[in-house]
Design a protein that fits this description.
It is an enzyme of class 4 (lyase). It catalyses: L-aspartate 4-semialdehyde + pyruvate = (2S,4S)-4-hydroxy-2,3,4,5-tetrahydrodipicolinate + H2O + H(+). Belongs to the DapA family. InterPro entries: Aldolase_TIM, DapA, DapA-like, Schiff_base-form_aldolases_AS, Schiff_base-form_aldolases_CS. This protein has 296 residues and is α/β, with parallel strands linked by helices. The protein is 47% helix and 12% strand. The chain has twelve helices and eight strands. It has helices spanning 28-41, 61-75, 90-102, 120-132, 144-147, 153-159, 175-184, 197-202, 213-228, 232-248, 254-264, 281-293, and strands spanning 12-15, 46-49, 80-84, 107-111, 138-142, 165-170, 188-191, 207-210. An eight-stranded parallel barrel has the order 1-2-3-4-5-6-7-8, surrounded by four helices. The longest helix has 17 residues, at 232-248.
């Protein structure tokens, strides 16, 4: 589903966990149920499947395509579905993108190549080749703390000229750089760090691809709408109220605590594949406190 009003993918998106069964096989039924919960109960406009929170490093290409298809079947008539397809190999990323399109995705999230750390000229070649091969709109995921390589401002501005590169999941933590790109392009900027949603909206961003939004979705949607309505005091109040969970899910890797929190709320999303591990009792207690403090 591509939105006809507002930003292309909507404003509130969640990077969804991938549920596993007791044998750590992907559980497509629970994935569909969770997608419906996030969209119908928490008000998400879209979901991002097979991102880091979805444990993409440990799922196969076939599993990734199956999860996308299951989520599209569950909520694709009322929410956008983006597939995480980025790898450190351009050819593999193109193959993954084509599989996501065949599975029904509305767009693709493409992370900066990690580990091999290409130069900026390599990033331009990588993202351009993917966009040239794509029939889907692309959201670049700029997260140098994970990949080791930022998409520098001139690079992002050059990439914005491609008609299928339309959005950025911004986890760079550099509002000045984001401001420069926003001033020079029509790219849609989504916060890739939940706590940066309101600051990014203030400089021209459009929304968030969240992790804590597995829990804070309703409040985050109210925050975004308050800002759009010019109710800055209300937006700031909600930002402060939700801050404990915005930051609390990142006390360790997000997928660990999101799965722990969903289990606390009765969602049977299963465990985690190695090398990820279950949350400790101390982490669960801290998360429960963060949820309580945030009114969730």
């Amino acid at each position: 589903m591509i939105f006809t009003e507002g930003p292309l993918f909507g404003r509130l998106l969640t990077a969804m966990v991938t549920p596993f069964d007791k044998d750590l096989a992907v559980d497509l039924g629970v994935a569909a149920d969770l997608a419906r919960y996030l969209v119908d109960d928490l008000g998400n406009d879209g979901l991002v499947i097979n991102g880091t929170t979805g444990e993409a490093p440990t799922t196969t290409d076939e599993e990734k395509a199956a999860v996308v298809a299951a989520v599209v079947a569950a909520v694709g008539d009322r929410a956008s579905v983006l597939a995480g397809v980025g790898t450190f190999d351009t050819r593999h990323t193109v193959d993954a993108l084509q599989a996501a399109r065949q599975a029904g995705a509305d767009g693709a999230l493409v992370v900066t190549p990690y580990y091999n750390r290409p130069p900026q000229s390599g990033l331009i070649r990588h993202f351009t080749a993917i966009a040239d091969a794509s029939e889907l709109p692309i959201m670049i995921y700029d997260i140098p703390k994970r990949t080791g390589t930022p998409v520098e401002t001139p690079t992002m501005i050059e990439l914005a000229a491609h008609p299928r590169i339309v959005a950025v999941k911004d986890a760079k933590g550099d509002l000045s750089a984001s401001s420069e790109v926003l001033a020079a392009t029509d790219l849609l900027y989504y916060a890739g760090d939940d706590a940066m949603t309101l600051p990014l909206l203030a400089i021209g961003g459009v929304g968030v691809v969240g992790t804590s939004t597995h829990f804070s979705g309703r409040g985050m949607k109210q925050l975004i709408q308050a800002f759009l309505d010019g109710k800055n005091d209300e937006a700031s109040r909600l930002h402060q109220q939700l801050m404990p969970i915005f930051t609390g899910v990142f006390a360790t890797q997000g997928c660990i605590l999101v799965k722990a929190g969903l289990a606390l709320q009765g969602h049977a999303v299963g465990g985690l594949r190695s090398p990820m591990v279950e949350a400790t009792d101390q982490q669960r207690a801290a998360l429960q406190q963060a949820l309580s403090t945030a009114g969730l």
